[in-house]
Amino acid sequence: MPGSDPERRPAVMARRAHKVFYVLGPGDTLRLLTMRRPTEVFQALSEISFEVPQGEFFGVLGRNGAGKSTLLRLLGGAYSPTRGQVYADGPTSAIYELGVGGNDRLTGREFAIRWFSLYGTAGAKLEDVLDEVVQFSELGEYFDRPIFTYSSGMAGRLYFAVATVLPGQIYLIDEVLAVGDEYFQHKSWRRMRSRLAEGASGVLATHDFTAVLKLCDKALILDGGRITAQGAAPAIVRRYLELEPPTGGASFIGLDDRSVPFAVQTEQDLAIELVVESDVDLPLLIGVSIETFQRGIGWEHLLQLDPTVIGSGKGRHRIELLVPRIPLNAGEYSLNLFLVAQPDPAVFSYNVLDARSWSHGSGLTVLVTGPERDGLFRLPVCWSHAEAAAV
Amino acid sequence: MTFRIEARTLSKVYGEGKAAQRVLDRVSFAIGEGERVGIIGANGAGKSTLLGILAGIVTPSEGEVEVVGTVHAALTVGLGMREDLTGRENLYVDAEMRGASRPEAEPVVEKMIEFSELGAFIDRPMRTYSTGMKSRLSFASLVFVNPEILLIDETLSVGDRWFAGKALRAIEDLCRRGRIVILVSHSLGSIVSMCSRCLWLNSGRLVEDGDPSRVTEAYRRQIVACEEAMAIGDLGGENSVWCADKAVRVDHLELRDAASGAPCRIFDTDTGLRVTAQLCIEKRLADPEFRFFIERADGLRVGESRAPVHFGARGSTVEATLAPLALRPGIYRLDLEVLSKGGPIARRSQVFKVTASTEMIGGSPALRMPIYAHARRVTEVDA
Questions:
Q1: What is the pLDDT of residues B197-227, one digit of tens each?
Q2: Cα-atom radius of gyration of chain B, to the nearest Å?
């Protein structure tokens, strides 16, 4: 995994962390005063262990009430673990659950000042930091009005702007990338991408799997306060989505044991021979996508073939896939193939007969070689010098 | 009794003197029985204030409002919930406040508890709830009442994706049962599918009032225009220029339609883009190159192309064509740079927009370059 240096300490770590809340009933205050434990407890987190290497974001997926927010609070030091250890290698900047954890009678400015007096400004001048927050959040005059007058989108913009304004922090982010309109989401992504490019680390708790795919290398799923799965982000997202397996009826032949990536040089043709065996007397379609999970870019659909008829009827079909002069820069890409039946126009959904895709846990890889270049694509630009006069 | 709402020149001003903020400005409308009204508008347009006035928790500064019917309002997550009581106790207190006795309330409250999916938390104090849990309880408390006039702020549907679907169905169901429903939502789709009428507020003023499809479409167009303007700002402005040294400059940059050669700023993804630049290179450069680079509004570095500069000319023109453009619809910035030893020394940038007349089915790829699949049926496969 690029960026994860075994010599360096992890940015964030939890080792067998537990969090237990005491549920106070009548008489329990007295019990506490006499140092006896209240009888009723709520086990919010159990046996939480994971590590976030420096320079990576880690995804925490789970339903409401799964313990995501409690986990972030634990990592940020707002709670201490009942048992086990948590650790963050540097200053953390956290947006806990939206709209909670602050006094909403404060104005945006007062909230920000209180925040920075608590967490510091990493040497920057408070005025400059506040200016940056107003500018990024685009709250305008609302910055000097109480937070309870904000809509949820405005509050989200404030919290996001405050928590991400300082570079070089360990960012603990709860759901916030889903806040605001499309424009603000773009802007938030720009900021997170640039923070990641600067080498920042963090944890993103969310139920939006696309955010995890875009930002995180690894992820875990929390359910009832326990980790039910942990690993590479695409695999974890797959678990989280619980996608229906392909229905069968037709299948790709000879790809099952393929572990070698398809290799190609940038701007050369990528040609792949496929064999499909069909047991059904129906038109068959093939859909193809090439996607990336590269660091700092995240999940992105790059090239795509919409489902296209490749034949009809039982038997074997041979298919030649061709990506002419593949316009991708050097790197590793995910290749996904879908064999689908003719769509039902009424429901507008495809019946997937067979798939070789990351989302079904069976994706293929394309390895593109070539010189290092900026950006994802090698754009096929034609150059001409209209006039030239030699010196 | 005929339920109705009538607002006459409603205004709301917060603050005094110089700091005064007019958040609602002479808003008038009348809503009759059976109407389901959606309210849309940007953040800070006055939607929440208007809902607050109709609910009777905000007093208008000017104008008056007449409401005939009992108002049920779901405006803020956890509003009206008593933090120290348990979820169950809160539901019973609400029922009592509406005049139901405990035996009358019990079956309804039990249904609400089931709907909320709060499990053991229903008997714990509200202060121990997460936002999502409070939101579920708020919803549950609405679902089984029979509202006369219902005010809903849909932004309250914070929840996980399982509960959000359930909440949406509940809202739809409520809208059918309510005699008058007023719904504030960011989801234009919900407004169109659930409402019979739509009000659009902009900076406190009522700018449109009418058919939901028509009003939401007008609103959508305005949002797109605004977002584009902001995206252009984020990309460094419409047209920006930089040089390390006055002796090497990109003096002029023009984006054109590749086919017609006409200056153009909005391209269909299937058409070509040609950029022409006038350069001024007044000194000899080591390893000079041109670079054509595209960045997307969300920060994605799309890619580049480079070409060697074969000359050190004064006042040259360079032309570069990308056809078809093949980019996903959106806002982009094109940089044309002069490089020396791989590092930029002069740049001029221009923002452009890409549209598409056709949509792809399986998602929206960053680049619409072709992949081909050719097939033939075989009886025997020799491989």
A1: 999 999 899 999 999 999 999 998 888 787 7
A2: 30
Window 204-263 of A: residues touching B by CB (8 A cutoff) are: 207, 253-254
Q: If pLDDT is split at 50, 70 and 90, which confidence band does A176 have?
A: low
Of A153, A301, A382, the CB nearest to B320: A382
Residue B230 placed within a domain: no
Q: Which helix (H) or strand (E) holds B251?
A: strand B248-257
A324 close to B (CB below 8 A): yes
Is the predicted pLDDT of residue A97 greater than 60, yes or no? no
Q: Does B342 touch chain A (CB under 8 A)?
A: no
Is B84 an interface residue toward A (CB < 8 Å)? no
**What is the model's pLDDT at position B314?**
55
Task: Decide if B232 is inside a domain.
Answer: no
Of B82, B95, B203, the residue nearest B145 (C-alpha):
B95
Contact between chains at B315 and A389 (C-beta distance less than 8 A): yes
Burial B161-175 (b: 16+ CB within 10 A, else e): eebbebbbebbeebb
Residue among A64, A302, A344 with most chain B CBs within 10 A, to mutate = A64
Interface check for A301 against chain B (CB to CB < 8 A): the answer is yes
Question: What is the SS3 assignment for B63?
Answer: strand
In a domain, B233, yes or no: no
The domain over range A12-241 is classified in CATH as 3.40.50.300: yes
Q: B311 and B197: one domain?
A: no
Q: How many domains does chain B have?
A: 2
Task: Show which of B200, B224, B248 is a domain's final residue.
Answer: B224
Q: What is the pTM of this model?
A: 0.70
If asked whether residues B106 and B188 sit together in one domain, one would say yes
List chain A domain ranges. 12-241, 252-369
Cβ neighbours around B361 below 10 Å, total:
12
| CA–CA dist B363, B351 (Å, integer) | 25
**What is the Cα gyration radius of chain A?**
25
| A307: contact with B, CB 8 A cutoff | yes
Interface of A with B in 166-185 (CB under 8 A): 181-183
Phi first, then psi, for residue A76 (nearest 5°) are: -85, -5
* Residue B203: CB atoms within 10 Å: 14
Q: Which residue has the higher pLDDT, A27 or A342?
A: A342
Residue B189 sits in the same domain as residue B253? no
Contact A331/B at CB under 8 A: no
Residue A77: what are its φ and ψ, rounded to 5°?
A: 85, 5
User: Which residues 96-115 of B have a C-beta within 8 angstroms of A?
Assistant: none
Residue at which a domain ends, from B192, B224, B256: B224
B367/A377 Cβ within 8 A: yes
Q: Which tens digits make up the pLDDT trace of A38-78?
A: 667 788 899 999 999 999 999 999 887 788 888 998 998 88
pLDDT averaged over every residue in chain B: 84
Q: Do both B84 and B108 map to the same domain?
A: yes
Q: Which one, of A168, A122, A171, lies nearest residue A159 by Cα? A: A171
Instruction: Say whether A252-369 and A12-241 share the same fold.
Output: no
Is B383 a domain residue? no
Fold of A252-369: Coagulation Factor XIII; Chain A, domain 1 (2.70.50)
Q: In chain A, positions 260-279, which contact chain B (CB-CB < 8 Å)?
A: 273, 275
Is the CB of B358 inside 8 Å of chain A's CB atoms?
no
- CATH assignment at residue B243: 2.70.50.60
Does this complex have an ipTM over 0.90? no
State which residues form the domain around B327. Answer: 238-377
Q: Which of chain A's residues have a Cβ under 8 Å away from the Cβ of B307?
A: 381, 383
Please write the tens of the pLDDT for every residue from B230-286. 778 777 777 888 888 888 889 899 999 999 999 998 999 999 999 999 888 888 888
